[in-house]
Amino acid sequence: MARVAARGQEISSRVLTVPNVISMARLVLVPVFAVLIVTRQDAAALVVLAVSGATDWLDGVLARRLGQITRLGQILDPLADRLFIFVTLLGLAWREIVPLWLVAAVVGRDLLLALTVPVLARLGYGTLNVSQVGKVATFALLYAFPLLLLAEVPGISSGAAGTAAYVAGWAFTGWGVALYWLAGLQYVAQVRRLAVAG
Q: Membrane-spanning residues where (predicted)?
């Protein structure tokens, strides 16, 4: 049985929808990207990241416009985002493009939220909706990492474009991590309110 989403649209239990197929394709691209970044095929890795970013926007738009908001889609879309962020961070850290503390900051926030899952399950809730702050944080991080990778591409890294990509990449990283944690703390506070009320 369908429930009603925030803008009056129903959330269905359908599986095979256009947005869900796009989200599944994004999940398939995660290991492809991992191989590309580890083997230093940076141009191809950047293309994969660009495609992933574009389809991340596209699946949400199509879900709303086609009336195909589904429970599966609400799981697949953030899952693909988190996996891309995690794999990209690990790849960049392995290449020594980003420091390990950045990996710890992002992974630590997700581990914090993982601790809320048993609490929500005990209260009879599934995962809570992603907040607007969380969406902006994810957007910032998904833009930050391609810029940091672009700043390392031979022929670009030593020029003005490489410098601009490096500065913009770290700016997006700073805002992204700060907002990522803010969204996480808001999520924890929301879970706490539900626990107190329940």
A: 21-38, 44-63, 75-94, 133-151, 163-183
